[in-house]
Amino acid sequence: MKTSRKLMQNGGITIPKDMRLKLGWKRGMSLDISTMPDGTLIIRKHIDLCRFCGSAQNLCRYKDLIMCHSCADTMKGALS
Ligand SMILES: [Zn+2]
User: Fold this and answer.
1) Which of 24, 57, 62, 72 has the most CB atoms less than 10 A away?
2) So what's the pLDDT on residue 1?
3) Which element (helix H / strand E) includes 45?
4) Exposed, middle or buried by CB within 10 Å (0-12, 13-18, 19+), for 9?
5) Residues forming a β-bridge with 43
6) Looking at residue 4, which CATH number applies to its domain?
7) Better-predicted residue by pLDDT, 54 or 1
8) From the CA of 53, how far away is ligand 1's center (Å)?
């Protein structure tokens, strides 16, 4: 699926409804936006990642900090 859109004055774009429906994207949901070295912009449904290593596996949360259990164990060892 491919289409073209003009960038709005505030930097926004409208993602076509058929693409949003296909992806299951709903109003107000969080999206992750990243750029690739070749200039490609990637927009994906938000997933939580460990703040320290970037893993998406075995996550835990302490207040606003999200980390994986491995990094949490490393931190616990460093503090004891
Ligand atoms: Zn981690």
Assistant:
1) 72
2) 82
3) strand 41-45
4) exposed
5) 33
6) 2.10.260.10
7) 54
8) 4
Could you give the CA distance from residue 67 to residue 58 in angstroms, rounded to a whole number?
8
Q: How far is the CA of 73 from the centre of ligand 1 (A)?
A: 9
When divided into structural domains, the chain yields a total of 2
Domain that holds residue 63: 48-80
pTM exceeding the 0.90 threshold for the entire prediction: no
Same domain? 8 vs 43: yes
Cα 75 to middle of ligand 1, angstroms:
10
- Residues lying with their CB under 5 A of ligand 1, a single-atom ion: 50, 52-53, 55, 68, 71
pLDDT in tens, 15-64: 999 999 999 999 999 999 999 999 999 999 999 999 999 999 999 999 99
Separation of alpha carbons 77 and 70, rounded Å: 11
